């Protein structure tokens, strides 16, 4: 449909990774609708170039910030003020209807049926079900609505300092007026809520259509081991994410996004996978080249304990030669 679109927002290069996976998941399940991404000036030129290969429309927008440090402090998420930039999505007036999806979401099947819903349709928030979660919602672009939202933000602010508080305040009748605007939770399954109500997830989780990686730790904040299919958070965050969904995200990232990043010469940091493989290769080469008096198991154990022979076999020059050889 040329007049309907899935819309997301990327405010920096990290969130571009999420936006790329989101688009890939929508394409994977053959959506018939346009894909639009709003980007701020903080997104690099190289990443914008990659976005243009995946999205039908890459639209630059200005940053809106609530500056509401008091309310954001309650959530311990001061970075969320910039999420007000999301309301730029109402300016996409060339589209008759849109579905906004946060860049930390991923679809698990075709969800084009959402375009049959009316504004503002959204799923309940797991933290306060009388509020909707603004990670996925159906809306109708309108410059008039955009201006009203700006006015509302200026006059009344947001009760959480971010877009969710603003939108729930503006669309205040969502909780009580029309149950048809309440999307089933499977359209915005919070990855962290799985563990707060595990029995429900076991009963209904197989019907999930969209997974939302809520919380501070995002999929791209994890290190992924391609051999064990295990992930480990790079942040000091205890948030638990269902490994099945996290692995699905990384499968898309490694198979569909890394080739794009590599093709464009984006920093190799983009794949923690490669880093882990290189580290393992260097270790194995060092083990294989070690004196016969030391077994490979003992050599590896010494490495893992930090007992490295810096003056001998494990000197900087030797490691550099081995690493160069591996990369070649």
TrEMBL record:
Keywords: Cytoplasm, Glycogen biosynthesis, Glycoprotein, Manganese, Metal-binding, Nucleus, Phosphoprotein, Transferase. It comes from the Eukaryota. Its main location: cytoplasm. The keyword DNA damage does not apply. Gene3D superfamilies: Spore Coat Polysaccharide Biosynthesis Protein SpsA, Chain A. Pathway: Glycan biosynthesis; glycogen biosynthesis. Transmembrane segments: none annotated. GO terms for cellular component: cytoplasm; nucleus. Its EC number is 2.4.1.186. InterPro entries: Glyco_trans_8 (IPR002495), GNT1/Glycosyltrans_8 (IPR050587), Nucleotide-diphossugar_trans (IPR029044). Pfam families: Glyco_transf_8. It comes from Hymenochirus boettgeri (Congo dwarf clawed frog). It is found in: Cytoplasm; Nucleus. Belongs to the glycosyltransferase 8 family. Glycogenin subfamily. It is an enzyme of class 2 (transferase). This is glycogenin glucosyltransferase. One of its GO terms (biological process) is glycogen biosynthetic process. Glycogenin participates in the glycogen biosynthetic process along with glycogen synthase and glycogen branching enzyme. It catalyzes the formation of a short alpha (1,4)-glucosyl chain covalently attached via a glucose 1-O-tyrosyl linkage to internal tyrosine residues and these chains act as primers for the elongation reaction catalyzed by glycogen synthase.
């Amino acid at each position: 449909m040329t007049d309907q679109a899935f819309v997301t927002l990327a405010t920096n290069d990290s969130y571009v990774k999420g936006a790329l996976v989101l688009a890939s998941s929508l394409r994977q399940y053959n959506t018939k609708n346009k894909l639009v991404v709003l980007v701020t000036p903080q997104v690099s030129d190289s990443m914008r170039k990659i976005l243009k290969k995946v999205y039908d429309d890459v639209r630059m927008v200005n940053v809106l910030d609530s500056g509401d440090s008091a309310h954001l402090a309650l959530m311990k998420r001061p970075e969320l003020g910039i999420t007000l930039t999301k309301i730029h999505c109402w300016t996409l007036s060339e589209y008759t209807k849109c579905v906004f999806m946060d860049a930390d979401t991923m679809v698990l099947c075709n969800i084009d049926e959402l375009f049959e819903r009316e504004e503002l349709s959204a799923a309940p928030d797991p933290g306060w079900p009388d509020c909707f979660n603004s990670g996925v919602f159906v809306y109708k672009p309108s410059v008039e609505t955009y201006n009203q939202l700006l006015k509302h933000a200026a006059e009344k602010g947001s009760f959480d300092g971010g877009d969710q508080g603003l939108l729930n305040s503006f669309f205040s009748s969502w909780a009580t007026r029309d149950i048809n605007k309440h999307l089933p939770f499977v359209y915005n399954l919070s990855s962290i809520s799985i563990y707060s109500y595990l029995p429900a997830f076991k009963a209904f989780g197989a019907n999930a259509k969209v997974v939302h990686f809520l919380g501070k730790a995002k999929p791209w904040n994890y290190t992924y081991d391609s051999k064990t299919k295990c992930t480990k958070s790079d942040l000091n965050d205890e948030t638990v994410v269902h490994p099945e969904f996290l692995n699905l995200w990384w499968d898309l990232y490694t198979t569909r996004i890394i080739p794009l990043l590599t093709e464009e010469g984006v920093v190799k940091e983009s794949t923690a996978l490669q880093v882990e493989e290189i580290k393992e290769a260097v270790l194995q080469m060092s083990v294989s080249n070690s004196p016969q008096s030391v077994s490979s198991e003992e050599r590896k154990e010494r490495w893992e304990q930090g007992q490295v022979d810096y003056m001998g076999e494990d000197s900087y020059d030797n490691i550099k030669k081995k690493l160069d050889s591996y990369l070649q």
